[in-house]
Amino acid sequence: MRITEGLPGREGDVTVRRLGHHDAEAFAAGTKDEAVQRYGHLPLAEYSPQTVRDQVDNEIARGLDDGSLAVLAIADADSDEFLGSIVLFDVRSDRAEVGFWLTPQARGRGAARHGLRALLRVAADAGFRYLDARTDSANDGSRRVLEDAGFVHTEGPHDELAPSGEVVNVLTFERSLVELPN
């Protein structure tokens, strides 16, 4: 499944697009935010702009090429300013898991909600039938964004190992893309 063919996706005042070298400074800075560190459960403990550029050229490029991983940017539709990241991972035959985080300045404007809705259409167009999501049970903002986008709580709370290697108390959600409205 090639997610890149449907990019960029747009919803409201944000686009979901490929992550690029020009996003490296803002991405690295965003990962230092307390909320991202607490709830993002990112695979690396620390990101520098060079780490991000290296990932764009290597792991992210390979994942986009083979359909196994899509690390994307949520960006302002007018200025193209990096607002956060949205990721499809754990790709299986007709489903994948989605995760997202925002920079502090992007919060409160609906960027996560719009980014997730844009990604739903891109994923459906790429042939995915379901998206899964997990969020820290204490992350009320993420839970609200998922529910607003039509995700249904399916499990939890229960402890799971996150990509960061930490054990996290999570809620699990699912969203069918089969009859996604335009």
TrEMBL record:
Keyword field: Acyltransferase, Transferase
Segments forming domain N-acetyltransferase: 14-174
Domain of life of the native organism: Bacteria
InterPro entries in the cross-refs: Acyl_CoA_acyltransferase (IPR016181), GNAT_dom (IPR000182), N-acetyltransferase (IPR051531)
Pfam families named in the record: Acetyltransf_3
Any one GO molecular-function label of the UniProt entry: acyltransferase activity, transferring groups other than amino-acyl groups
Acyltransferase keyword on record: yes
Family to which this protein belongs: Belongs to the acetyltransferase family. RimJ subfamily.
Protein name: N-acetyltransferase GCN5
Organism: Mycolicibacterium chitae
